[in-house]
Design goal:
Layout (H helix, E strand, L loop, with lengths): L1 H28 L7 H8 L13 H10 L12 H12 L9 E5 L20 H7 L15 H5 L5 E3 L6 E3 L9 H5 L5 E5 L6 E4 L7 H7 L9 H5 L5 E4 L2 E4 L9 H5 L5 E4 L7 H43 L1
Antiparallel strand pairs: 1-4, 2-3, 5-8, 6-7
Helix pairs in contact: 2-3, 2-4
Length: 320
């Protein structure tokens, strides 16, 4: 009996040793060498693991950056240009600086402008609320007010205002990681160019209903009238599906669209001076007057030129 136990132990020990040696040689043969630069890149990353770069975390970003031929498609929004310069230095790449971005809430439907049509008594979650129905106001496109965006932000850059019922972005804390934007089921939070000295102009509405319906649901809704698009001389504004959108790459921050918007759906923020609506309207009226006069003068000149060209023809006809 004792001898059987000893042999069993010896056989199992031998088998374990053989298997260990087999595993050792297999691991050696199929070992995947990892580029040491991945560790170096990961060390200079902010370590937020927020996913704002499009990867699962900083380690995944470092691995992708090392394997990529350049850094054109890899950017860390939390670390920004400074971190990307360090990454480029490690990898021997060149990196193009990007303008800083910030989260913008594209909804002006505060409690006083967008009254409730029903009372929601379910789980305080925008995701759940959106899955159940359009919301507790007449606008099916606006903020649901449950604060999913607040929970998603790892940097404390967004809070809910109890008076307006809308989220408020703290620019000093926002890293433009995009977590709040992804968490919003209504997609009312957008990442936009921060702008020179943090000045920017944007349409704070996402309502795609026709003008009367949008206006009835929210006093500050974009009604798709197109006045802003006609006013803009930089072709920065388009109106699609009854809602205007400002392309921040073309916007010159003149604020003319903001002054002309009949519902106040266009917001200009961080400007040093308050909006002079009357002054801007007078400037636009003067510009339109001059343009009209120029068009009439051009029309008259064209008519005169046509008349002169027709004179020799008439003379030839009379001589004939």
């Amino acid at each position: 009996m004792t001898q059987s136990i000893i042999w069993t132990i010896l056989i199992l020990a031998g088998l374990g040793l053989v298997l260990a040696l087999v595993l050792f040689f297999i691991a050696k043969k199929f070992k995947v060498e990892e580029d040491p630069r991945i560790d170096e890149v990961e060390k200079v990353m902010p370590g937020a693991n927020c996913g704002g770069c499009g990867f699962a975390g900083c380690r995944a970003f470092a691995d992708a950056a090392v394997k990529a031929p350049n850094l054109d498609n890899n950017y860390c929004p939390v670390g920004g240009n400074e971190v990307m310069k360090k990454v480029a230095s490690i990898l021997g790449y060149e990196v193009k600086e990007k303008a800083p971005m910030v989260a913008v809430v594209r909804c002006s439907g505060s409690c006083d402008k967008r009254p409730k049509t029903n009372d929601y008594d379910g789980l305080a979650s925008c995701k759940v609320k959106a899955a159940l129905y359009a919301g507790d106001t007449g606008c099916a496109y606006g903020c649901l007010g449950c604060g999913d965006c607040v929970e998603a932000c790892q940097f404390g850059g967004i809070t809910m205002d109890p008076e307006t019922g809308l989220p408020v972005v703290d620019e000093s804390k926002c890293t433009a990681c995009g977590a709040c934007s992804k968490a919003c089921p209504k997609h009312v939070i957008e990442l936009r160019n921060k702008g020179p000295r943090s000045m920017r102009v944007y349409v704070s509405c996402m309502n795609k209903d026709k003008g009367p319906a949008a206006k009835k649901a929210c006093a500050a809704a974009c009604i798709g009238c197109g006045i802003c698009a006609k006013t803009c001389t930089h072709e920065a504004i388009t109106v699609t599906d009854n809602v205007a959108y400002i392309d921040y790459t073309k916007c010159k921050l003149c604020r003319e669209c903001e002054a002309m918007c009949p519902t106040g759906a266009i917001h200009g923020v961080n400007f040093p001076k308050p909006l002079d609506k009357e002054g801007i309207k007078a400037r636009i009226a003067e510009r339109n007057r001059k343009a009209k006069e120029a068009a009439e003068a051009a029309k008259a000149a064209a008519a005169e030129a046509a008349a002169k060209e027709a004179e020799p023809v008439k003379k030839e006809e009379n001589n004939g």
